[in-house]
Amino acid sequence: MRLARLIPFAMAALLLAGAARADDVPGVTDTEIRIGTFGPMAGPGYLYGRLAMNGVEAAFAKANEAGGVNGRKLVLVREDDRCEPAGAIAAVRKLIYDDKVFAIDGGGCSNAAVAVREDVEKAGIPWVVFAAVHDGLTVPVSPVIFSPALTATIESKAQVAFARQQGAKRIAIIAMHDSWGRSRLDPLMATLKEKGITPVADEEMAPDANDATAQVLHLKAANPDAVIVVLYPKPAAVFLRDAAKFGFKPLAIGQSGIGDPAAFEEQVGVPGATANFVTIAMVKVTPDDPAVASWRAEVTRLYPDDRLSVFNLFGIGSAEVLIEALRQSGHDLTRAKFIDVMNHLTNFQTDVYGGPITCTPADHRCNKNPVWLKKDPGGAIHVVAVTPVD
Amino acid sequence: MFAYLALAGLTNGALYALVGIGIVLIYKATGAINFAQGDMLMVAGFVAYTLHVTLHLPYLVALLGAVAACFVLGLLAERIAFRPLANADIISLVLATVGLSFMLKGFGRVVWGGLGDYLSFPPLVPNDPIMFGDIILLPQQLVVTGGAVLVIVVFALFFKFTSLGRMMQATADNRRAARLVGIRVDRVHALAFAVGAALAGAAAALMAPITLLYPDIGFPLFIKGFAAAVFGGLDSLPGTLLGAVAIGLIESLAGGYVGSGFVDVSAFLVIMAVLLIRPRGLLGSAALRRA
After folding, report:
1. How confident is the model at residue A5, as a pLDDT?
2. Which of A31, A64, A301, B37 falls between 20 and 30 A from B177, CA-CA?
3. For B264, which of A206, A218, A271 is closest by C-beta distance?
């Protein structure tokens, strides 16, 4: 009898203990896991922010419809960083200290993303990077930052490897020399040096340039087989437009900063000028691919005005990785468990990335399979190759 | 090589002139620099894009729509950012137009920022390169250069031969005297802002196929247009034209003969050197002053 009287108290104590444990883990309750995201919500960089976030949201919606992760629903909390370091720091601090999210799946702009590394590490919050490629995010290894997105060094190695695979012996560069450009140009030059290649020309363009006559004339005089393009879409479009004007059509090798070949063809605006242009995508599928029909439907269902884009797929891929790590972490979720699972995630296949995702405690650059996209003039986008990078 | 570079410089100079003339127009009438001129141009470009690309209206309608929208925007800007501060110190006025610039950029980001990273605007003429002897041109570059020259001529005639143009000049030279001879100074200021903004509307519709459209396009264009105006003389339309062409040429030739890293720096180095010798600019008749 005395024992029976104690049972309700014992059950209440157990419930309280359970609740207290959930409360101890930021962003986790018995019914939901709050995940934060940040990136540009408007302006030219919104592709790497808002669209990637929409992809994350689509992946969360799919997981929630299937019952959630270990019984908990995923909730995404968005913050706009305006693609600026100061904006990113404010956004991430809000996610950590006000919104108290469990983890972050975000980071659209490289310079903004790398600025928050210190805050993220100080808070010990796990961060899965969805689009930013700055090497400073993953080198030296951060205990809490994992990147299923590509990194600048990986893309640079792939650019050089692709040029050589195509038989290019004379390689030239056209690049922005601002902080974004430098974050890619420095590893590119290091890679070329490592391979014993001296660029036959190294030209500079400003992000807002409206003319590339001087650069095109210099490059044409250098007679390269391939030009590695380290530019935003606008200067890259100006470059290819002016190159076409002078009948200069080398193999032009882009990077994930020019992630939408269809939009890029329109931006260039000169028929046939993009015929020899290839660019890197983080994902192996194009938005029209039947393999991503279910994702196309999910994005359209959530955002009726949107069509599935490559940038949605960036978000979907990173969210698939995050969800898998949450699932493997089990019901008694803690940040330490999640980080441990991420550290040992091996050969995880997503629906979108060019190859399996593998993270190790010594290397958090988890995606080493850049995918090459090309759009035939007036035709469809197709995957040209995948260049695994060691 | 020189011919190619010079031609590219002239085309860029035409772009800068279109921006610079709007700045000078407002300065001549009000004595104030409109730091939001580039962002007005951005809004005009997106208005033209909405009319032409989204609503499939003819280009001419889009151009006129952008001009009309900017005319109204200019009137509003004068009423909100200039008139309440017309008698305040120059710093307040500068801050007001800088604030307006940020507001317009924010507006552009919210309304059009989700349509694409850099929106392409269809060229007015087929964009296949054409040859003039050894010179290769994109037809759209000819359209921009020709359009800029036309706009500049129209505004030069406006100031020289219309009573409103003369009233603007008189108001800029001496506001109190203008008022004494019966000129409605407030109305002249409002019209100056409206016409200056309308000019940005025309410029945006002309240059959009070359520059592409994005919410942050305003400031870089403003800087080049402002530099052209300062270089040429802030109260001189021919001076601004000369300054714009000079900047375009210096950038292009420096990029070609010195190195592509000197494109942006070269023009400003030359401007600094010229202003040290002639602070009023190449053809300016008065030092920077507040009417």
Report:
1. 55
2. B37
3. A206
Quick check: B117 contacting A, CB < 8 Å?
yes
Segment B64-88, tens digit of pLDDT:
999 999 999 999 988 888 888 877 7
- Same domain, residue pair A244 and A296: no
pLDDT band at B287 (very low <50, low <70, confident <90, very high): low
Inter-CA distances, A363 with A144, A379, A389, B122, Å: 12, 39, 14, 46
Q: Is A364 domain-assigned?
A: no
Mean pLDDT of chain A: 90
Q: Is B210 a domain residue?
A: yes
A184 and A249 together in one domain? yes
Query: How far is B72 from chain A, CA to nearest CA, in Å?
Result: 24
Note the pLDDT tens digit of each residue in B168-220: 778 877 778 888 888 888 888 888 889 888 888 888 888 888 888 998 899 98
In a domain, B240, yes or no: no
Same domain, A273 and A179: yes
The whole model's pTM is what?
Answer: 0.84
ipTM score of complex? 0.84
Domain shared by A157 and A305, yes or no? no
- Neighboring chain B residues of A242 at a CB cutoff of 8 Å: 8
**CB neighbour list of residue A200: distance below 8 Å, 6 or more residues apart:** A170, A171, A172, A222, A223, A224
Domain residues for A90?
A: 10-150+289-359
State whether A277 and A295 are in the same domain. Answer: no
Interface of B with A in 152-171 (CB under 8 A): none
Partnered with residue A75 across adjacent β-strands are A34
Cβ of A43 under 8 Å from any chain B Cβ? yes
Same domain, A157 and A142: no
pLDDT of residue A116: 96
CA distance B117 to chain A (A): 4
Q: For chain B, give the mean pLDDT.
A: 85
Interface test with A, best of B18, B110, B117, B219 (most A CBs within 10 A): B117
pLDDT-wise least confident of A18-32, A265-279, A354-368, B230-244: A18-32
Q: Which residues of A touch B260 (CB under 8 A)?
A: 203-205, 214-215, 218
Same domain, residue pair A43 and A159: no
Amino acid A14: pLDDT? 44
Chain A CB contacts of B128 under 8 Å are 270-271
pLDDT of residue A98 exceeding 90, the answer is yes
Contact B139/A at CB under 8 A: no
Of B5, B214, B260, the CB nearest to A205: B260
Cross-chain residue pair B137–A245, CB shorter than 8 Å: yes
Residue of A nearest to B10 (CA): A211
Q: What confidence tens digit (pLDDT) does each residue in A308-338 have?
A: 888 999 999 999 999 999 999 999 999 999 9
